[in-house]
Specification:
Blueprint: E1 18-21, E2 31-34, E3 39-40, E4 52-55, E5 61-64, E6 73-80, E7 86-89, E8 94-98, E9 108-110, H1 112-117, E10 119-125, E11 132-142, E12 149-158
């Protein structure tokens, strides 16, 4: 971009100089190290005000056929710039709960205050599934978000294998 300039200014403490702005248009560069006079440079940080949510990664949702559900995977759902609550909905074949105890559900609600503080949730692959791989998106929606935010989930139900052993006894 022709209108963007990147500069590096270094003032050493020993020189007694600080970064200043020279208001005279005849001086170049106008922002540089000065030992006296000139105007202080003020740098402002404008944080984003756009509502957003993030979720820590979850993995290893798996179990052997007939022994489900999978172990709970703990994640933290964090929100920024929220004023309204969020609805968390896992895909088919997955369950979610708020915190680390209580019943699992197909959907949970998290208040804005909980999301701003970082709410622990647990997700698992539900029991009773056939052997195979399962995947889909966990959806987080709310009035403050322009669209639902999605997070990929996957899990697997393993086929049991048995080792053949020796035949005991005498055939008749």
């Amino acid at each position: 971009d022709a209108d963007t300039y990147i500069a590096s200014i270094t003032c050493t403490k020993e020189s007694g100089q600080t970064i200043k702005f020279n208001s005279s248009s005849s001086v170049s560069p106008r922002v540089r190290c000065y030992s006296s006079g000139q105007k202080d440079v003020q740098i402002y940080y404008q944080p984003s005000t756009t509502p957003s949510v993030s979720l820590t990664t979850v993995s290893n949702m798996e179990y052997d056929y007939g022994s489900g559900p999978s172990a709970a995977q703990t994640a933290t759902l964090t929100g920024r710039n929220l004023t309204a609550g969020l609805t968390v909905t896992p895909p088919a074949n997955f369950e979610v709960r708020k915190g680390t105890s209580g019943d699992y559900s197909s959907s949970i609600t998290i208040t804005a205050a909980e999301a701003l503080a970082g709410q622990t949730i647990q997700i698992r692959l539900q029991s009773g599934l056939s052997v195979g791989t399962y995947s889909g998106n966990l959806s987080v929606s709310g009035d403050d978000l322009s669209e639902a935010k999605t997070f990929a989930l996957s899990g697997e139900v393993h086929c049991l294998t048995y080792a053949a052993g020796p035949v005991l006894g005498t055939p008749t």
